[in-house]
Amino acid sequence: MGKVMTRIGWTLADLATQLLEPHERDAVRGDLAECGASGWRALREVLGLVLRRHAALWTEWRPWLALVGVVLPLGIMLSHASRSWADGTALDISLYLRLWDWSYLQYPGWRRELLQSVGSIALSAFALSVWSWTSGYMLASVSRRTVWIAAMAFALVVFFATLGTTTVARLAHDKFAGHFYGVVLPRLFRTAFVMLPLLWGIHSRRKGVIRPMTLFVGAAIVIAVTVLKSPGLENSLVWGRGLYGHAGPDRTYGTSDDPRPLWPVALVMLWPTAYILATAMPNRLRRLDA
User: Can you give the pLDDT at residue 288?
Assistant: First the structure.
């Protein structure tokens, strides 16, 4: 039994060394083997070293910039937007499932409404994805060695920033009392269109630098999507807390003439794109000069 426990301790210690820098792993393993440490003592030593190394990383300004400049503001807004747009998607899906009949496709008005609904859902998903991808790219650029801690913090903000709030859709419909529409679909939105693109952005930054043409085309796409979805983003923050804001001259909430006091929040969503452009272009120019 003692040998089994020792073997388990060494296995866990070996796994813990993966949290260290590659050049340190073999040295740590060799030192522990030479001093004859038991498996559980080796695990304590490795975990202590990992904690000291990661604590030292937070004495620099970059991880804090990632936390304050990306994780908190963008995570909070993506949390509200993904929940709000998932709720809108749930209403569309439930409506079409309840009323669907293939014969309706012969009517131009029905086809137009269907295409508009599908297009709106697709644009919402795409907007969440591009905002999340640029956020992940910036996290990997700024936080570097603490990027995975920043990514976990981002996930916590995305999944829990809307706790204690609701949406207009949830207030007006009992559809969200069901488990799928009320719980599963919002989590699917956040996983598929926020967290996975975020991880993809981190991977893309660690893999290499973006090509200039891709950089400019991508920036133009992000700007265009942000302009199109900025009213929905603003509404997700206001309506996401059960507030309707102020109606415009037509006295109807949610129309194009409503005042938009929160329009600057769209600029926050463009912050990672601006950072990518600002940091990538000087590097390209230096390479061309060389």
Answer: 47
- pLDDT tens digits, 34-47: 665 666 666 676 66
- In percent, how much of the chain has pLDDT > 70? 70
Residue with structure tokens 């591009």?
A: 130
Based on the fold, state whether residues 52 and 80 are members of the same structural domain. no
3-state DSSP: the chain helix, strand, coil percent, rounded to 5? 80, 0, 20
Regarding whether 69 and 43 lie in a shared domain, the answer is no
Co-location of 167 and 53 in the same domain: no
Measure the CA–CA gap between 240 and 85, rounded to whole angstroms.
Answer: 10
Domain limits for position 190: 62-289
Same domain, 162 and 277: yes
- Which tens digit of pLDDT belongs to each residue from 112-127? 988 999 999 999 999 9
pTM score, whole prediction:
0.80
Choose among 66, 236, 78: nearest CA to 153. Answer: 66
Distance between CA 202 and CA 209 in Å, rounded? Answer: 12
pLDDT for 159 beyond 90: yes
Indicate the average pLDDT of the chain: 80
CA 108 remoteness from chain centre: 38
3-state secondary structure 167-183: CHHHHHCHHHHCHHHHH
pLDDT of residue 30: 62
Strands (E), 91-204: none
Clarify whether residues 67 and 44 are in a common domain. no
The angle formed by the CA atoms of residues 143, 70 and 85, to the nearest 5 degrees, is 140
When divided into structural domains, the chain yields a total of 2
Q: Which residue has the higher pLDDT, 166 or 240?
A: 166
Burial 176-198 (b: 16+ CB within 10 A, else e): beeeebbeebbeebbeebbbebb
Q: Nearest to residue 11, comparing CAs of 51, 43, 33, 34? A: 43
Instruction: Give dist(CA 1, CA 133) in Å, integer.
Output: 49
In a shared domain, residues 66 and 41: no
